[in-house]
Amino acid sequence: xTDYKKNPLLATDVYKMGHMEQYAPHCTKVYSYLxxxxxxxxxxxxxxxxxxxxxxxxxxxxxxxxxxxxxTYRKIILGYNSPNVELQIRSLCELGYFPLEIKTIEEGTxxxxxxxxxxxxNTQAEFYWVVGFVESLLLKxxxxxxxxxxxxxxxKVIEKYFxxxxxxxxxxxxxxxxxxxxxxxxxxxxxxxxxxxxxxxVFLGSDTVVALPFLQKYYHAKLNEINMLSVPxxxxxxxxxxxxxxxxxxxxxxxxxxxxxxxxxxSDTYDIFKVLSEFALKLKPQILAREGKTVFRPDSxxxxxxxxxxxxxxxxxxxxxxxxxxxxxxxxxxxxxxxYKVLHEKVGLIYGDAMYLQRYENILATMxxxxxAASNLVIGVGRYLRDFNRDTLGFAxxxxxxxxxxxxxxxxxxxxxxKNKKSHKGLLCLENKNDNWVTTECCSQQxxxxxxxxxxxxxxxxxxxxxxxxxxxxxxxxxxxxxxxxK
Length: 487
Hints:
This protein is α+β, with helices and mostly antiparallel strands. It has helices at 50-58, 64-78, 83-95, 130-133, 135-138, 142-165, 189-199, 211-219, 236-240, 247-257, 272-289, 303-308, 318-331, 357-370, 383-386, 445-450, 468-486, and strands spanning 27-36, 44-46, 100-104, 110-112, 116-122, 178-180, 263-266, 294-297, 333-335, 341-343, 347-351, 377-381, 395-404, 407-410, 427-433, 436-443, 454-458, 461-462. The protein is 38% helix and 19% strand.
């Protein structure tokens, strides 16, 4: 049985299987570009993920056996193989690699949408068709880019509310304010690793184990570096195994198991408000005696009401007060230098359900009005870091320049029925002048060479690599400069 992951020729769409004989006669060059065309959801993108695809798929040496396998499947699917297709595929496999040059911005770069992110062209005239052939595979970087972009926007919200309600001593905990709970809800193991790694470009808290070996394999993560951290945590089956009548023993058991460090205990198996008042009071001596923080985790209901209180509930009821006030009543709080309340250092709160970006921002705004610092709430997010598709940012990879018999020809796509799908034309140049990113089309070859896109891949070889640490630093530097400008 064929292992399709080990033959990159199979990582394509059927219609790509015949394009090598469909281009205009005597074509010798194809030049294409990648762009995120849609700014409706996010107005910037975080460029991340290309290095994985280049290492995992493009670096596989092409062999004659792969070519024959491709031709076998093509004949099964389309019913025939033309002599021209057979010749082209066998010639490519005799060469042994994809004769391409890929230029990009650096991974970790944050750039406004509607700018060129990547260009690709062939390096040998007879293999002009390979540019389009790999499009289906290369375009998959929409996923890590979109997830990283989403996480970046969560981080922007954190930066905003920390700047208002928190002090400098809270700086280090920003990396842990959005924890990745998404492994179980992702589409496959590969998808979970890719999206989990994208999250780790911005944050360090994660339960997606496969993300760490992914970063080790593809992004030079080292075991002696902090690239991902988590804490012991319970789930509902653990808590309910003690029975509802004996639920407090489940909490005691967790506290006894983990006398040091942070421990997260799911707290809404039955009555979250009872846990945060009656149970918390009974457990207070043990919690205060621990060498670490006990984090309570509600995971159901209306998050804003559970955390900040339900204004429609009877006044002074537990539901009316909400989790923050209930914990404050039992354990107390201090006031930081900016005048906002911080819960006792021995207790914390994490909410891990339905915490989409706008809801999270709304809750932090409500907490601010209540006088609580943003640092009091950690959130766990799974689906809402990943609930996207290629159209979320409008990713497309389009050809804009070809050569026929060595003569340049500027081409574009411009459907009369959808102006948003109009592509650029000709060679492209990306520039950044005083943080103003500009993509210029119809460039000369000299202009194109002078732009910010640099060659990362050429003729089967990866020429530039980026570590996760470097990528993370680029993102942090951008966040810092953006925050300073907004102030």
